[in-house]
TrEMBL record:
This is RING-type domain-containing protein. One of its GO terms (molecular function) is zinc ion binding. SMART domains: RING (SM00184). It comes from Sinocyclocheilus anshuiensis. PROSITE patterns: ZF_RING_1, ZF_RING_2.
Amino acid sequence: MSVHGPIAGAQRGIMASLSEDDFSCPVCQEIFKNPVVLSCSHSFCKGCLQQFWRTKKTQECPVCRRRSSRDDPPVSLVIGSLRLCLFYGRYGRLN
Ligand SMILES: [Zn+2]
Ligand SMILES: [Zn+2]
């Protein structure tokens, strides 16, 4: 089984063109590994999130404590959306 798919390749390409600060996991402070995004739009490494959930015995966001109804968070394919969130967070909303 290979870990090198089109998705992994795309993520590597996107990450290479952006600064590390924009893509660090709030749990481990490292660049996301297998980034997943929760319904509250916070992103984490899949491994970090699952470990956090195991430890807490509840499926809540490590940042905002919002409960997730899913036990298998969707993989963040469009990691660029995270950058958009940061952009709007800094400069305010469009409307
Ligand atoms: Zn992490
Ligand atoms: Zn959250």
